[in-house]
Write a structure and sequence with these properties.
Distance between the termini: 65 Å
Radius of gyration: 28 Å
Helix content: under 10%
Strand content: 35-45%
């Protein structure tokens, strides 16, 4: 990376920064759109055979950030290069205005291209994580869904008579019991059987509690 005049080749620094960022963002979802900011061509740095690219403390390769390059030769130097990292992916958004308490169906969700670096970490990409859940608050048309906007619907009420489905290796038995607590879909709920025994099962739809043996 050393220039022929004994000064550092600035274009080589840019290439090293780009290579470092691409290697360290390869596992992120979506398509990476990388822009390495300009380095002042008038910058006079002593040539360095093994410059080190590093991420400054508190920075991350996400959105508008900064990457450091340093040389530990006899004449050490450190510079910081601005970098823009966009992560383009399909984001699940509301297909139309939705009301608080509404259970979300397939027609309520669209996939839309967006930059994940401009979204909160709780943004949802997979519609399967949304459909069947209930909105805590309303959502505007085109608004990205976040995990904190959703709750799993309640399917069991305390005191409700439920259908117990006991499953084991090669058998399945059904009976009735009384739920001892409210439960959302997929939650564990205690049920008192007709014999008075209390067992725990998984709350399912249609007043069913699944018990696995």
């Amino acid at each position: 990376m050393a220039g022929t005049t004994g000064m550092q080749d600035i274009s080589a620094i840019r290439k090293a920064v780009e290579s470092h960022v691409r290697q360290n963002t390869a596992g992120l979802p979506g398509q990476i759109v990388l822009t390495v900011g300009a380095i002042d061509p008038r910058l006079q740095l002593p040539a360095c055979n093994l410059p080190e690219v590093f991420l400054p403390t508190g920075s991350r390769l996400w959105g508008n950030t900064t990457v450091g390059v340093r040389c530990s030769s006899a004449t050490p130097w450190t510079i910081y290069v601005p970098v823009s990292v966009k992560i383009m992916a399909q984001i699940a958004v509301a297909a139309r205005p939705l009301s608080a308490g509404q259970t979300i169906g397939q027609a309520d969700v669209l996939l839309q291209d967006g930059d994940l670096s401009q979204q909160p970490s709780s943004v949802i990409l997979d519609p399967a994580q949304i459909i069947g859940k209930t909105l805590v608050g309303g959502a505007a048309s085109g608004q990205a869904f976040r995990s904190d906007m959703l709750r799993t619907p309640q399917v069991i009420q305390q005191g409700q008579t439920v259908k117990l489905m006991a499953k084991g290796n090669g058998f399945q038995v059904s009976s009735e019991g009384k739920a001892l607590a409210n439960a959302n879909l997929g939650q564990v709920v205690p049920v008192r059987t007709q014999s008075g025994q209390v067992i725990n099962g998984i709350a399912r739809e249609n007043g069913t509690v699944e018990v696995n043996f």
